[in-house]
Amino acid sequence: MQEPEEKKIALELLETEQAYVNRLHLLDQVFYTELMKEAKNGKTVPEEVVKMIFSNISSIYQFHAKFFLPELQKRMEDWSCNPRIGDVIQKLAPFLKMYGEYLKNFDKAVELITVWSEKSPPFQDLIADIQKRKACANLTLQHHMLEPVQRIPRYELLLKDYIRKLPPESPDRDDAEKALEMIFMVAKHSNAAIAEMERLQNLWVVYQRLGLEDDIVDPSNELIKEGPIQKISTRNNSTSEKYLFLFNNMLLYCVPKVIQVGAEFQVHLRINVDSMKVRELNDAQFPHTFLVSGKQRTLELQAR
């Protein structure tokens, strides 16, 4: 007899999960454990660096190896009398939130591997040595580290496929659809965490360029636009190069520093958005000009 389509997909989920657990074992029990051992001996890199590279990979490995994979195996063995996986995946979904931390840390981890490979030849040698082993299948550490990043979208695809193949009257339909919804929410949650992390990093870079002025550094600000602008001096009909940063709550009018030690710009004026007025001008001599006025003063500016 031909296997039903939905069982084939459930088996594919089990097989990919087994391969995934092997990959996690390699990351946690081989790379992390051996690099940590060498770090403790003070031979390669600080222990903190190894911890930062692997983030919470140990928790992810333990969860999949000790809980999710065994549950899935048990379910597939009982398939003939209980053909369903939706309920098992529902138990999995809340734990996938653990991935948020790993994903947020991923870019930083890859950067640390590069930086420390250059700084510490023993560190580089140990990684190269592990990569030569059969379990690594000729792939780099960075390549193996990508696997958890790709796992949640993989669950989503397999589960969508599974639901598509289920007969309309299948007892697993409700559970499987609910599980898919839960996984979708987790994926959204992870993406939102990454986006927020990137926003804060970009904001921090801008604050450094502005010399970290106390009253400006606020993590809730959002940078909307930045760029060079010409300031028009009506007194002598000339223009000079200035720079604007527009945030959701304020406009910073800055002067580029000639000697860039530390900050790149000096803030000359701060205009609060809620009391700011902008008016376009029709000036034949200076096209694309506009007035920006705040409580203290008005600026005549020319865009490109």
From TrEMBL:
Annotated PH domain residues: 222-304
InterPro entries: DBL_dom_sf, DH_dom, FYVE_RhoGEF_PH, PH-like_dom_sf, PH_domain, SOS1_NGEF_PH
GO molecular function: guanyl-nucleotide exchange factor activity; zinc ion binding
Domain DH residues, every copy: 5-193
Swiss-Prot/TrEMBL GO biological process terms: cytoskeleton organization; filopodium assembly
Subcellular location: Cytoplasm, Cytoskeleton
Any one cellular-component term (Gene Ontology): cytoskeleton
SUPFAM superfamilies in the cross-refs: DBL homology domain (DH-domain), PH domain-like
Keywords, comma-separated and alphabetical: Cytoplasm, Cytoskeleton, Metal-binding, Phosphoprotein, Repeat, Zinc, Zinc-finger
Top-level lineage group: Eukaryota
Pfam families for this protein: RhoGEF, SOS1_NGEF_PH
Name by which UniProt lists this protein: FGD2 protein
Organism: Circaetus pectoralis (black-chested snake-eagle)
Name of the encoding gene: Fgd2_0
